[in-house]
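Page 42, continued from yesterday. The earlier attempt failed because a stray header line got pasted into the input along with the sequence. Redoing it now with the clean sequence only.
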Amino acid sequence: MSTAEPETLQNPQGLSTELESGTAEWAFPEIQLSSDPAPDAVYGALPDSSWFRLLIVQPSKKMWAPLRCQLRVFKRRDAHGKYEALSYAWREGEQSSEFFWKPATEKDGKWRPQQIVCNGHKVSIKGNLGCALIHIRHSSRPRAIWVDALCINQADPMEIAAQIQTMPDIYGHARRTIVWLGMSHPSKRSVVSNTLSLPHPEAAVASVCHLVKHWDPSQPVRYFTTDPKTRFAEAKEPDLGCGFARNLSHYFRSPRNGWETDLLPLKEFFGATWFTRKWVIQEVALSRSVDVLFHNCRVSWRWVGLAAAIIRMQYDNALREHRMYNVYNAYLMFRLSGKHGLDPARMTFVELLRLTAAFETSEPRDVFYSLLGLETTDHHPERGPLIQPDHQASYEDICISLARTILGRAGQCGSNPLAILMDAGIAEDPKRKVPSWVPTWQPGKPGLLSPWSLDDCFTASKGLDVHVDTSSPLHLTVQGIHVSNVQWVSPYVMASEDDIALTIDWLRTFSFTDPITSSHLKVYSRTLCAGRDVHGRREKNRKAMMLPFIAFAIYGVLPNTELFRWINTGYRSLPKAQKYSLCLDESSESENGWSGEVRWSAEWKEGRMRFGHAASLAGRGAGLFLRRTDTLVWGPARPSPVIWSAGSAMPFVLGSGSGGCTTLVGPCYVDDIMDGEAVAAAQAGTAHTGPLWSNKLRLAAQSSKASPLVIQRVTLE
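This time it went through. Structure tokens are written below.
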């Protein structure tokens, strides 16, 4: 095809991207191909990167008839708005999802969509892609689809690299992007939801629409179902009079119980692998219009995104309770898409990497490459990219190159010039093959202690002049302050709420923490949550988590009336107006606990859950330290001696390196220096002590005095 004229696609004027008037049928462009026969080969060389291939899916009146397609070459600019793009999970359907059809044999006549006929050749595909094409195929008209697995020659690394860079243009100029979530599990297809009176595939999509309609009845919410035999599509609207809508608030505000079965369709919907794949973020975010297909049901991405936003913002505590973790991913993709009427999310490329850390890629380098189509404050895909896709470079080389590029711009990064260091450290990846100051962005790493909010970060280095030296290929020199040394390290690493409870009990063993006061309670509660609220944002009210902390410590991970005398002393010291109503009859309260059976109030239980959620979110993989001079440190669970503040929103824990160098262990939270207090003390040449400083602590630490803080430089390896 390198010498052929480009094909043309006919796009009738006035064709809507939504539905044809009066029907539930999809409106999609008519295709008018040249009279030239299809190429003999499946793939020919593309003339240059301004060309691309489209998959022409031939129609069939039988839904399960074998797929016959053509791959044709077009000029991208000539095809704008005249084709559709497919977004799906590549690896979905390799094993368990492929049992919907038996292998093709002469005896059973069953067909399994793992092979298509393309340009007259048999081409193997994944079962999930085959299912998607089956459901997209029209009964009477050919359809032009861009599918990465087929439209890019996967055997040509040069073409892959070139076409990846054009994906923002491909998705951005498609008439529509079709998201394929997959098929409903066979064991659930005949199951009928009691409250919705619908089979599971439809009940899942209907649940999404009910959420949005219940939130705002004025929204024109609807979805569509297709009969697999007749191919007839029917438009449907949520019925606010059904049991699901009436009980909606109970589903998410009650612990897992009898309501659990009513949420199963919604959980199955958001449980689709597609929501975990990193490549799909830009595919949705850059698209003009997006429809979501689940089994034989279709719904607008707008309703899916709004449903995720509603659950995330109104029922956040229930997400962990019901294990609907993919809702977070759906909400993030919705916010990044920019087609929701909300203020656009402006962030740096590092912040984008951080926010998308829970998404997965099959190729490590795609951690970066899958996001290059998205514009950030320091990265523009065309005018100013931070990095270019290079499939010959090793993953480690990409990590180092990106870190050096970003650190080289540190002087232009406002109040948080060394933000990238918050994702680095040997605690992040002990088996790393890169310097400690280079993040490896490995999925599944411990949660970042810094707040997720992009507009309200900590400012531990406020007022500190930036000094960054990247002249050495493997070393980084920065300017900062040696804040303090670590004296005691908790033996517990945060993996569950049980570890948080054990850490609280560990604090009780120190004589200088007794008697406990309201000042202690404020420091403990803020530190264990790293100064964050249940949404991961910075908690501005310094007392906000104090009562939830007490509720967690007394109530325990499971209800328990054997109260700690230590924590109860702090609770009893609070004014009555500040207390939760613990039980219906508080006359049984005594110094050492409550006699008889305690009836925990809903407010008490909610506070316990709120603290457990916030602390788990902030502290996964972290541990608690006690500083020699004053207060608590919440940081990487790896014994290291030095707390350091240097040009970042968060302070760091440093360890000993080789040849006079220092190793970056990871970021930490120190309650009393998060707004530049240590910098102010160093500039004044004075010492800095926190709220726990006392004669008892001074004697226990064998420290006669707190030394003045000094600004100095350190070289990290």
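Notes: The mean pLDDT is 79.
Reminder to self: strip header lines before submitting.
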